[in-house]
Amino acid sequence: MLVSYKWLKELVDIDVTTAELAEKMSTTGIEVEGVETPAEGLSNLVVGHVLSCEDVPDTHLHLCQVDTGDDEPRQIVCGAPNVRAGIKVIVAIPGARIADNYKIKKGKIRGMESLGMICSLQELGLPDSIIPKEFADGIQILPEDTVPGASIFPVLGLDDEIIELSITPNRADALSMRGVAHEVAAIYGKEVHFPVKSLDEADKLASDVIQVAIESDKVLTYKARVVENVTVAPSPQWLQNLLMNAGIRPINNIVDVTNYVLLLFGQPMHAFDLDKFEDKKIVARDARAGEKLITLDAEERELTADDIVITVADKPVALGGVMGGQSTEIDASSKNVVLEAAVFDGKSIRKTSGRLNLRSESSSRFEKGINYDSVFEALDFAAAMLQELGNGTVLAGQVEAGNLPTEAVEVSTSIDYVNVRLGTELTYSDVEEVFAKLGFAVTGNAENFTVSVPRRRWDISIQADLVEEIARIYGYDKLPTTLPEAGATAGELTASQKLRRKVRTIAEGTGLSEIISYALTTPEKAVEFTAQPTNITELMWPMTVDRSALRQNIVSGMLDTVAYNVNRKNSNLAIYEIGTIFHQTGDAKVDLPQEVETFAFALSGLVQEKDFQTQPVPVDFFYAKGIVEALAEKLDVTLEFVAEKDLSSLHPGRTATILLKGEKIGFVGQVHPQTAKNYGIPETYVAEINLQALASGLKADQTFREINKFPAVSRDMALLLPADTTHNQVVTAIESAKVKRLTAIKLFDVYAGANIESGKKSMAYSLTFQNPEASLTDEEVAKFMEKITKALVEQVSAEVR
């Protein structure tokens, strides 16, 4: 919200510097972003009267004689297309400073002396977006009553100071000059003085010309007035100055009046050309899916049932609360005007403006709230201004539909409630004084009092809101400062945090480096490495297509990181990430997705570089699987690996599903060559594990056990097995013998080939036995081996070699 300080001082009697005002407002709840002076950096700019203007042959230039209040006219060469004799203009005399600190000097153009410069508003540093269209491509023409030689700053309102307020959603009442004036008056204990317009109505009734109706529960009220026989013309300079200082482009007196009322009251308004209506009845209703409307910006908008439209003859003529339609806009030929003031549902307006990416001064105010108590007054004020500036005839009465509650909202509390929460010792008279400054009526006593909150402060509805108002106006700096009293508590990590830290330590111990990738990706990549994809959760308004859907795997994002590094000649990669994936089993537009903590890693390139002694060692499946096994060993969980061929993005012969107690918790394997080609990466191995599922298999923290004092005994055994027998099956068979002194099983050799019959393979294991209470004898170990051999023969058809 841009606030003109000169305008503000007309509404409330204050005489302080803007720096002091900014400090006061910021410490009472409305932050001031900054204060700017439009004239800062400009100098020696005066009003000039063009006495004569002659075209320079064969050029676009004009040789002008300009009266700038000096003894003699000043000769200036000007190239503006709209310069002509008889007009008042902005002149920068030699020595002047204009935008970008550019200094004006005497000079010659095409051999003609030029003693200054006739300026446009752009050359004074004003942005194109707020300059009147008629002067957008030329110089600014000033009012005829300006005096040659006078400073240009008061004429254009450049001597003002513009205060930029950062308005939070709960203080939308400050999105108007009246709201800001009430706030400043409360801070300084002053009275507000708002302009009053007398309205002279004709005998003719507005209801004879138009009718209004509401056919939507998103429209709370709709009011209209009719002003006939207006003269469309540029607004007076003072009005244009106010609008430009607020960041709004002046259009004409009709449109500018609606924008002026918007700034003064915070009430959005719209003006229709009545003669362009096809019917006399205006209906505010929900749009129909597929309806179209060309808005004032000449864009065709396709509407949905969530939008509000203002219709005439059942045809949309405006997008309610957002922007008017082109078919009924005010132009130079307009004579009869319908003024609209309404209150629309803020949520609906927010949806519409967001979906169409169409933000306006009106929509921003409807989204945050409107003062119900001033809708009627704002409409009459605008009609009176059209009568004053456009010589219009205002027809009698407002035509309206719908009702708004305008009575004050009563909120009760007590002095004890206030003092306990603020830590103060305020009296009832102190509280009365605070609410008197705010303009709130108070009844009751210290034990229980009631505050009547006017509708202009719709953010106040409960006791806590009253406490906040008291604290703001009383002064936050006056509140006592005390340290919070609380017993000391011991902090502790959650089970999830402990697991993440353990996994991170183990991963980095195996040589992996942590990365953080985007949780948003493309819909295709979101489910690429997912065994059982669920509904994709997509953003309605993504920043880019590449970041539009929540991921259901981490691997695809890691492969983007691999590709980024490979493209920059960094080909040996070992990276991991602990992050969240998102599964949606319900309606993606309504239900929140389920978040799953996940660990993933990716390996590419060489494990060991080549040097003069050793050969290079590339990453392979067993290296990746070894990292998973190291993780399982350190966490003391038992994982199983089963060959997997159903994941299309992974190599069918080099991929395994990871099982914990028979439940799938992840995978490890090589990225399918075609997938790797799509990402532009070399041979890469990846793994992904559900940490939440892994946590369920963790054992309770173990207590200290004394190191065994007795020696361990090892025995090796070579087994001849069917070729399709897996290591996991062998280990399961050995463990099924239930030899409680068996402490370790290690596979140290696998062989298939010469001297081994077809369909068979040899697997050699080292078994370790240890008794914590005594040394094992050879006889005991022999019995253990017999039991294990028997289990292997029976369960996996092993032959001990």
UniProtKB/TrEMBL annotation:
<keyword id="KW-0030">Aminoacyl-tRNA synthetase</keyword>
<dbReference type="GO" id="GO:0006432">
    <property type="term" value="P:phenylalanyl-tRNA aminoacylation"/>
</dbReference>
<feature type="binding site">
    <location>
        <position position="459"/>
    </location>
    <ligand>
        <name>Mg(2+)</name>
    </ligand>
</feature>
<feature type="binding site">
    <location>
        <position position="468"/>
    </location>
    <ligand>
        <name>Mg(2+)</name>
    </ligand>
</feature>
<dbReference type="InterPro" id="IPR002547">
    <property type="entry name" value="tRNA-bd_dom"/>
</dbReference>
<dbReference type="InterPro" id="IPR036690">
    <property type="entry name" value="Fdx_antiC-bd_sf"/>
</dbReference>
<dbReference type="InterPro" id="IPR009061">
    <property type="entry name" value="DNA-bd_dom_put_sf"/>
</dbReference>
<feature type="binding site">
    <location>
        <position position="469"/>
    </location>
    <ligand>
        <name>Mg(2+)</name>
    </ligand>
</feature>
<dbReference type="InterPro" id="IPR005147">
    <property type="entry name" value="tRNA_synthase_B5-dom"/>
</dbReference>
<dbReference type="GO" id="GO:0000287">
    <property type="term" value="F:magnesium ion binding"/>
</dbReference>
<dbReference type="InterPro" id="IPR012340">
    <property type="entry name" value="NA-bd_OB-fold"/>
</dbReference>
<keyword id="KW-0067">ATP-binding</keyword>
<dbReference type="GO" id="GO:0016740">
    <property type="term" value="F:transferase activity"/>
</dbReference>
<keyword id="KW-0648">Protein biosynthesis</keyword>
<dbReference type="Pfam" id="PF03147">
    <property type="entry name" value="FDX-ACB"/>
</dbReference>
<dbReference type="Pfam" id="PF01588">
    <property type="entry name" value="tRNA_bind"/>
</dbReference>
<dbReference type="InterPro" id="IPR020825">
    <property type="entry name" value="Phe-tRNA_synthase-like_B3/B4"/>
</dbReference>
<feature type="domain" description="FDX-ACB">
    <location>
        <begin position="708"/>
        <end position="801"/>
    </location>
</feature>
<protein>
    <recommendedName>
        <fullName>Phenylalanine--tRNA ligase beta subunit</fullName>
        <ecNumber>6.1.1.20</ecNumber>
    </recommendedName>
</protein>
<feature type="binding site">
    <location>
        <position position="465"/>
    </location>
    <ligand>
        <name>Mg(2+)</name>
    </ligand>
</feature>
<keyword id="KW-0436">Ligase</keyword>
<keyword id="KW-0460">Magnesium</keyword>
<dbReference type="Pfam" id="PF03484">
    <property type="entry name" value="B5"/>
</dbReference>
<dbReference type="InterPro" id="IPR005121">
    <property type="entry name" value="Fdx_antiC-bd"/>
</dbReference>
<keyword id="KW-0547">Nucleotide-binding</keyword>
<dbReference type="GO" id="GO:0009328">
    <property type="term" value="C:phenylalanine-tRNA ligase complex"/>
</dbReference>
<feature type="domain" description="TRNA-binding">
    <location>
        <begin position="39"/>
        <end position="153"/>
    </location>
</feature>
<comment type="subunit">
    <text>Tetramer of two alpha and two beta subunits.</text>
</comment>
<dbReference type="InterPro" id="IPR041616">
    <property type="entry name" value="PheRS_beta_core"/>
</dbReference>
<keyword id="KW-0479">Metal-binding</keyword>
<dbReference type="Pfam" id="PF03483">
    <property type="entry name" value="B3_4"/>
</dbReference>
<dbReference type="GO" id="GO:0000049">
    <property type="term" value="F:tRNA binding"/>
</dbReference>
<dbReference type="GO" id="GO:0004826">
    <property type="term" value="F:phenylalanine-tRNA ligase activity"/>
</dbReference>
<keyword id="KW-0694">RNA-binding</keyword>
<dbReference type="InterPro" id="IPR045060">
    <property type="entry name" value="Phe-tRNA-ligase_IIc_bsu"/>
</dbReference>
<keyword id="KW-0963">Cytoplasm</keyword>
<dbReference type="InterPro" id="IPR033714">
    <property type="entry name" value="tRNA_bind_bactPheRS"/>
</dbReference>
<dbReference type="GO" id="GO:0005524">
    <property type="term" value="F:ATP binding"/>
</dbReference>
<comment type="similarity">
    <text>Belongs to the phenylalanyl-tRNA synthetase beta subunit family. Type 1 subfamily.</text>
</comment>
<keyword id="KW-0820">tRNA-binding</keyword>
<dbReference type="InterPro" id="IPR045864">
    <property type="entry name" value="aa-tRNA-synth_II/BPL/LPL"/>
</dbReference>
<dbReference type="GO" id="GO:0140096">
    <property type="term" value="F:catalytic activity, acting on a protein"/>
</dbReference>
